[in-house]
Amino acid sequence: MDFEKLLIRRRAIRDFQNKEVSLTVIKEIIQDTCLAPTAGNGQPLKFIIIQNRDYMKKLSDESKKNLLSDLERNPESPLKKYEPRLRDEQFKVFYNAPCLVYFIGPKNVQSLYVDCGLTVAYFMFSATNRGLGTCWIAMGSNIRDRKILDDMGVPADHRIVAPVIIGYPTSIPTASERQAPDIVKVI
Fold first, then answer.
1. If exposure means fewest CB atoms within 10 Å of the residue's CB, which of 32, 33, 80, 143 is most exposed?
2. Which pLDDT does position 4 carry in this prediction?
3. Over the chain, what is the mean pLDDT?
4. Residues 4-8: what's their mean pLDDT?
């Protein structure tokens, strides 16, 4: 796929075919992420692959519970707009995705979020190039139960940065309207 087409076809996908993505393909996509630039070439990210839908539901329920708890402590939170969905027992944070990849990294790496953003972009472009769809599900990063984190393999000195769902899309939505770049100044 040429680069311009890749940019156009990479969309947030939340509806997937009932078709599994092979572990081999997931690992190939993750291998492609090693080409992403990171601060000082530190490559701090690690990956957790989840293909078990029951386990994904457990993680969804844990995230929803924690987000609702946050909302109770801060009723003016921007999460307020998601409250009806979070209270809906049928709503799954990871939608109907057949696979979920957690990007995790050391808590003490100052550039972790930037490194992760670049790495996730490479992951998404690699997946798109293979006919797959992805979506970064920020709500799915709210796993706080240490027992669950241990079961997932998240070391105590690491944090979840990005949960990304991946699968074969039912369709590719058109891009939403984008604002023109705001160039503040040219010197």
1. 80
2. 85
3. 95
4. 84
Q: Which CATH class is domain 3-167?
A: alpha beta
Residue in 21, 17, 12, 35 with CA at minimum distance from that of residue 101: 21
Give dist(CA 104, CA 45) in Å, integer: 6
Dihedral over Cα of 22, 23, 24, 27: its sign: positive
* Cα–Cα distance, 74 to 68 (Å, whole number): 10
Cβ atoms of 114 and 29 within 8 Å: the answer is no
Report yes or no: 165 and 99 within 8 Å, Cβ to Cβ: yes
Rg, C-alpha atoms of the chain: 17
DSSP state of 107: T
Give CA–CA dist 79/72, Å, rounded. 10
Q: Report d(CA 93, CA 63) in Å as an integer.
A: 8
Query: Smallest Cα–Cα separation from 169: which of 33, 18, 28?
Result: 18
Say whether pTM exceeds 0.90.
yes
User: Rounded to 5 degrees, what are φ and ψ at 112?
Assistant: -55, -45
How far are the Cα atoms of 83, 176, 182, 183 from residue 179, in angstroms, in the given order? Answer: 28, 10, 8, 12
What residues does each domain of the chain span?
A: 3-167
